[in-house]
Amino acid sequence: MSGTLLSLGHGYSASALSRNLLPQGWTILGTTRSADKAEQIRATGVQPVLWDEQSLSKALEQCTHLLISAGPDDQGDPALRLLHDQIAARAPDLHWAGYLSTTGVYGDHHGAWIDEATPLTPSTSRGAARVQAEAAWGAIAHLPLHVFRLAGIYGPGRGPFSKVRNGTARRIVKPGQVFSRIHVDDIAQVLEASIKAPNPGAVYNLCDDDPAPPQDVIAHAAQLLGLPVPPEIPFEQADLSAMARSFYSESKRVSNARIKDELGVTLLYPDYRAGLAALLHAESA
């Protein structure tokens, strides 16, 4: 199976999916707002598409599959603002569409387990914007939409090792705080599995098996590097930006049972220990 995937907002997660699909004969069209970034995208085997209405409309006419990674801004969803009517007209001919959202749409659950049936009660403006964007995409008739709610993303270039090495990693402790995470390669394999077994209207949580306190991840990274574990800093004493502080306003354990039961996914990195070990091994290699 192959086709042409238009990647709206071709970033970290979409690039990982492209690495899976390109060897299978797929054509990937990846959007960018920068001519310099276009050449970087082209070097990966993806065909760059500049973010303007004419270029995007032409790409939309070519694609069989649509991935939306571009997040909402102050005016709402940027792709729908520019292309709503063209996407609506093209929707019946698309085989699959995927929207990358966030588990932030669920809000705070004080460490309790949640799943895809949990009501959406976002506690941040970012989470609320994602709820609105999910609904806007879902309102397009005949669009074979799948929503993927992503936990905290890590992977090559996005691990804790650099901060541990340079001494800027902080182990901020808020009692009862846990976060769910997902390795970017597991995001890619879930998206690929969904593309091969479409179920329009489905919502999937993308996270690993082990929601964990953030200070434990930093400690484990330090231990893997053979470096001193940074001291704990009580949350109340931590000098955090408003953005960073907002992440600590939510604590929940996110179930990933649906990606396993419906898509048959076996996670490559079922917990942060496996993921960090693989990142360090890749660095060494």
Automatic annotation (TrEMBL):
<dbReference type="InterPro" id="IPR001509">
    <property type="entry name" value="Epimerase_deHydtase"/>
</dbReference>
<dbReference type="Pfam" id="PF01370">
    <property type="entry name" value="Epimerase"/>
</dbReference>
<keyword id="KW-0560">Oxidoreductase</keyword>
<protein>
    <submittedName>
        <fullName>SDR family oxidoreductase</fullName>
        <ecNumber>1.1.1.290</ecNumber>
    </submittedName>
</protein>
<dbReference type="GO" id="GO:0033711">
    <property type="term" value="F:4-phosphoerythronate dehydrogenase activity"/>
</dbReference>
<keyword id="KW-0520">NAD</keyword>
<dbReference type="InterPro" id="IPR036291">
    <property type="entry name" value="NAD(P)-bd_dom_sf"/>
</dbReference>
<feature type="domain" description="NAD-dependent epimerase/dehydratase">
    <location>
        <begin position="9"/>
        <end position="206"/>
    </location>
</feature>
